[in-house]
Design brief:
Order of helices and strands: HHEHEHHHHH
Number of domains: 2
Number of strands: 2
Strand order of the largest sheet: 1-2
Distance between the termini: 43 Å
Number of helices: 8
Length: 224
């Protein structure tokens, strides 16, 4: 996982999230470097946690797990950030690829990589990022440290952006499995991310569940 693409992804994403944070009206390199380094640390923590649990889960299913960066997605993020002065963010943390191992688990019939396994592995990564966000929110509530609030924003942004149905993104695996399931999952994590930045955990989960389930059943009825 810690290859050149992985390192480039962390550095690029840290550059993007800290683009507008190099001082206020006056450029301050010290403030900028602190925000860049802390952003890189949060992104590294989020990606490491996400990929660790995804690898553990997919390995138990009998797959070989490899990380895939998104060079074109990172380039698109830079192209969008510069003319908008960092107000428009596009963060693509990359995704994974699953290949069947030569020695399969006994009792499991393999017909190739299953879309359902890709979906579940993607969800494992999303919940890992959610755990990171919850941890940062707890620390921020105890200390009121602005950098922790900044880290909370980064972790929630990674959670949402990783679910976009773009090439080399986790969301594309869910999208190909089921469009309706993708919409419900995306709305759940997006609703949680937006509300959790301002509200507590219970309130955010309730809002996310109501939005995702309500729209899921509404759309499923309209498609019948």
């Amino acid at each position: 996982m810690k290859d050149k693409g992985y390192i480039i992804t962390i550095v690029t994403l840290a550059f993007l999230v800290s683009f507008r944070m190099w001082g206020g009206l006056v450029f301050d390199p010290i403030v900028g470097i602190i925000n860049f380094v802390f952003g890189a640390l949060v992104i590294w923590s989020g990606l490491s946690l996400k990929l660790y649990f995804q690898k553990k889960y997919s390995t138990r299913l009998g797959y070989k797990f490899t990380y895939e960066s998104s060079p074109y997605g990172l380039l698109a993020g830079i192209i969008l950030a510069i003319p908008t002065l960092g107000w428009f963010l596009l963060l693509q943390p990359g995704t994974f690829d699953l290949t069947l191992k030569k020695r399969h688990k006994i009792g499991r019939v393999y017909k190739g990589v299953l879309f359902s396994d890709m979906l579940k592995t993607s969800l494992v990564g999303s919940f890992a990022l959610m755990i990171l966000a919850i941890g940062l929110k707890i620390l921020y509530s105890l200390t009121s440290e602005p950098l922790l609030q900044y880290g909370l924003f980064i972790s929630l942004a990674l959670l949402v952006y990783s679910l976009l149905p773009l090439p080399k993104n986790d969301g594309i695996h869910i999208f190909f499995k089921s469009r309706l399931s993708f919409l419900a999952i995306f709305l759940f994590f997006t609703g949680f991310s937006i509300s959790f930045y301002f509200l507590n955990l219970i309130q955010s989960l309730l809002i996310a569940i109501i939005i995702s389930i309500g729209l899921y059943f509404q759309l499923s009825k309209s498609l019948k």
